[in-house]
């Protein structure tokens, strides 16, 4: 026999839901007597399960216990599920040619023998001599009685009415669905006197033979009838009286609806139910019951009081494990990946300390987790919020919590589980950006733990969250690019340029453009300082470099002085710089002399053409228009405005207005500023205020200043 396969559990469910389960039970009674004891109860649980998931879960639990005891158990199940018959097994079912025929023999008497057309094979199913399970009350497992219970039992207030010292012949526990009826009844059975046996007949059992079988065992007995409505047809008042007279305790459960239906139904069932002492359970738990949860000290209950919310405890405990299992299975390759990732996104945000996830925030995290399913968000949300078991969805939309909330059991499991991956740092960033004291506290704790373990990413985020420069330095020294850039900027702002250069260079080498720009500025400032010092000591080359730098920074007069200082070297560069400055002063003839001097120095690089030839007004206008035609879209507005400025400078005001209008439409705020000035010069105060306001709205600093701080401060 091989290992358990995923399909074995589904195969077992199929057999249990068919009539073939009796044949399989007979086979198992030979192979695995211990497992066969619970098989018939398993069959009834599977048939009555509220969902396919619940049926499969119970079958899986039973099979994982039974298969290791005898490897042939799996072979038997696979055979009855329709897989090839293993060696040693005979035919297991009829293969009808015409209408299917089933013939039975019960208590050695054949009945209803019918043949239609040709019957290839006739199987005789012989009922076991005693189909009931007999279990020790002191040790009986809750699952064996149909109670999906884990951990210690939390005493209910009504347990005071269920003391084993009471000699109730017939005890009936009722309540709404998921109120904990079966678990409470199981806890009552566990408190019965030592040596008591529990008789668990399968639904539909002919109970008339029970008195003789119970008497033959010569032990105190409790008759277990969970969901009593499944047995009332075979339990009449006479049989009930006989069992009670024998000292048999009868413990039964019913939903409120089933009790109301049968209590006032047929006279026979009404007479049976009238004999019961009824104890009613409520869904709502009292404060005393909640106190007992905390007193239990069991880690499985740690999250219960925090995350149960307005749901009843028994609903929470009963439905929660099924929802957790469904969510985990949805994460398989064949499962609902979009739904799984959306639930994970909300649970992760709640693990960060958020009480709920606004829908757009949940969408943002979901798209990080499932980038290949970004268009499936709405479908994933519909799946996640669909109510299960008539109680709740995996997610709930809560106005009070401000968005999507994970079902409490899922949140509690996610917080305590060691199986889930840590919340990604990007999710923490989004949660922290939402604000909230708890989120900030949890993020600080989380990042500090990671930082102490040596994670540079955690160090960086801790530094940003706490403004702790020491952690920022540790992250930068550990190679974190953003940390190096941030630390370099902080040092530069404090005037510690030399210390900043080290970190900015690290960031620049890693591709950080802003760090590279700042590093260049710092190095330029240092170069200016050193060239100035050298020039003061008469170094002509330093004066030449300094002149070039000063000209680029707009310090024209000072650049001219330094260029003259450098002329002693007969430098072509210095001569050309003097020529460029004279051209800037519109002294074209003098500029040409300097350009000729530069060329005569033997370096054609510094000819007049290096700075562009002198142009007439028409040539300059044409050059501006060419530049405008070649401009990229993001700077086109600036070039269009410059054409307008040229036209205005040469008195062509009407043409200038047209170009300014185009420049503003293309996004250049300066164009609106120039239009305002033209209106002002023409005496149009209203028009000037209108365009100045537009310039300020577009962010032009001169317009903002002119309006006294902003467009919104201007009347009209």
Radius of gyration: 44 Å
How many distinct helices? 35
Strand order of the largest sheet: 4-6-7-8-5-9
Strand coverage percent: 5-15%
* Main pleated-sheet profile: 6 strands, mixed
Topology:
Elements: H1 6-16, H2 21-31, H3 33-37, H4 39-47, H5 52-66, H6 72-80, E1 103-106, E2 109-111, E3 124-125, E4 133-136, E5 170-175, H7 181-190, E6 197-200, H8 210-217, E7 221-225, H9 237-245, E8 249-255, H10 256-263, H11 267-274, E9 277-280, H12 287-296, H13 304-307, H14 313-330, H15 337-351, H16 359-369, H17 377-385, E10 395-398, E11 403-406, H18 408-416, H19 425-433, H20 437-452, H21 456-466, H22 469-477, H23 481-493, H24 497-509, H25 513-536, H26 540-552, H27 556-566, H28 572-584, H29 588-600, H30 617-630, H31 636-649, H32 653-665, H33 669-681, H34 685-697, H35 701-706
Parallel strand pairs: 1-3, 5-8, 5-9, 6-7, 7-8
Antiparallel strand pairs: 1-2, 4-6, 10-11
Helix pairs in contact: 1-5, 1-6, 2-6, 4-5, 14-18, 15-16, 15-17, 15-18, 20-21, 21-22, 22-23, 23-24, 23-25, 24-25, 25-26, 26-27, 26-28, 27-28, 28-29, 30-31, 31-32, 32-33, 33-34
């Amino acid at each position: 026999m091989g290992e358990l396969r995923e399909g074995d559990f589904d195969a077992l469910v199929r057999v249990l839901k068919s009539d073939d389960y009796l044949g399989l039970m007979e086979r198992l009674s030979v192979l695995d007597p211990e497992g066969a004891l619970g098989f018939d109860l398993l069959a009834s649980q599977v048939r009555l399960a509220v969902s396919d998931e619940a049926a499969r879960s119970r079958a899986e639990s039973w099979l994982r216990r039974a298969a290791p005891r005898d490897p042939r158990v799996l072979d038997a199940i696979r055979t009855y599920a329709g897989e090839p018959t293993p060696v040693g097994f005979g035919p297991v079912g009829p293969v009808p040619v015409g209408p299917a025929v089933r013939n039975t023999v019960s208590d050695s008497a054949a009945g209803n023998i019918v043949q239609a057309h040709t019957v290839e094979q006739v199987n005789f199913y012989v009922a076991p001599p005693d189909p009931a399970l007999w279990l020790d009350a002191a040790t009986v497992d809750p699952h064996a009685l149909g109670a999906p219970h884990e951990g210690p039992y939390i005493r209910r207030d009504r347990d005071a009415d269920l003391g084993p010292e009471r000699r109730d012949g017939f005890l009936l526990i009722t309540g709404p669905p998921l109120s904990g009826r079966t678990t409470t009844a199981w806890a009552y059975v566990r408190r019965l006197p030592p040596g008591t046996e529990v008789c668990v007949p399968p639904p539909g059992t002919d109970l008339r033979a029970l008195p003789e079988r119970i008497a033959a065992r010569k032990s105190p007995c409790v008759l277990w009838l969970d969901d009593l409505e499944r047995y009332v047809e075979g339990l009449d008042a006479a049989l009930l009286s006989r069992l009670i007279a024998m000292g048999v305790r009868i413990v039964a459960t019913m939903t409120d609806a089933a009790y109301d239906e049968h209590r006032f139904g047929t006279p026979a069932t009404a007479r049976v139910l009238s004999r019961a002492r009824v104890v009613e359970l409520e869904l709502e738990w009292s404060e005393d019951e909640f106190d007992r949860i905390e007193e239990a000290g069991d880690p499985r209950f740690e999250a219960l009081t925090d995350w149960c919310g307005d749901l009843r405890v028994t609903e929470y405990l009963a439905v929660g494990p099924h929802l957790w299992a469904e969510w985990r299975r949805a994460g398989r390759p064949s499962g609902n990946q979009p739904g799984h990732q959306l639930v994970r996104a909300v649970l992760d945000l709640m693990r960060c300390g958020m009480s709920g996830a606004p829908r757009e925030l949940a969408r943002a995290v979901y798209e990080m987790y499932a980038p290949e399913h970004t268009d499936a968000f709405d479908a994933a949300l519909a799946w996640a919020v669909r109510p299960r078991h008539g109680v709740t969805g995996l997610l709930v939309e809560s106005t009070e919590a401000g968005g999507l909330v994970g079902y409490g059991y899922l949140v509690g499991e996610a917080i305590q589980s060691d199986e889930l991956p840590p919340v990604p740092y990007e999710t923490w960033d989004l949660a922290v950006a939402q604000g909230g004291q708890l989120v900030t506290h949890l993020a600080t704790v989380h990042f500090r733990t990671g930082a102490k373990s040596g994670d540079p990413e955690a160090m960086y985020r801790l530094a940003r969250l706490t403004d702790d420069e020491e952690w920022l330095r540790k992250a930068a020294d550990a190679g974190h690019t953003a940390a190096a850039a941030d630390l370099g900027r902080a040092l530069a702002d404090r005037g510690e340029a030399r210390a900043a250069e080290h970190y900015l260079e690290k960031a620049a080498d890693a591709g950080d453009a802003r760090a590279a720009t700042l590093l260049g500025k710092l190095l330029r400032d240092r170069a200016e300082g050193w060239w100035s010092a050298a020039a003061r000591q008469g170094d002509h080359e330093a004066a030449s470099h300094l002149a070039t730098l000063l000209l680029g920074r707009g310090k024209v007069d000072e650049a001219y002085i330094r260029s003259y200082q450098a002329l002693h070297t007969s430098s072509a560069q210095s001569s050309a710089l003097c020529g460029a400055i004279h051209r800037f002063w519109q002294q074209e003839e003098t500029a040409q002399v300097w350009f000729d001097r530069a060329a005569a120095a033997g370096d054609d690089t510094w000819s007049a053409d290096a700075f562009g030839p002198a142009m007439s007004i028409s040539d300059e206008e044409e050059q501006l228009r060419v530049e405008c035609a070649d401009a990229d879209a993001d700077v086109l507005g600036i070039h269009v405005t410059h054409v307008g400025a040229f036209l205005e400078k040469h008195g062509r005001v009407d043409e200038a207005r047209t170009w300014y209008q185009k420049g503003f439409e293309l996004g250049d705020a300066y164009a609106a500023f120039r239009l305002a000035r033209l209106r002002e010069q023409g005496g149009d105060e209203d028009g000037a205020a209108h365009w100045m306001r537009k310039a300020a709205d577009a962010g032009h600093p001169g317009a903002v200043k002119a309006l006294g701080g902003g467009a919104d401060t201007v009347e009209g």
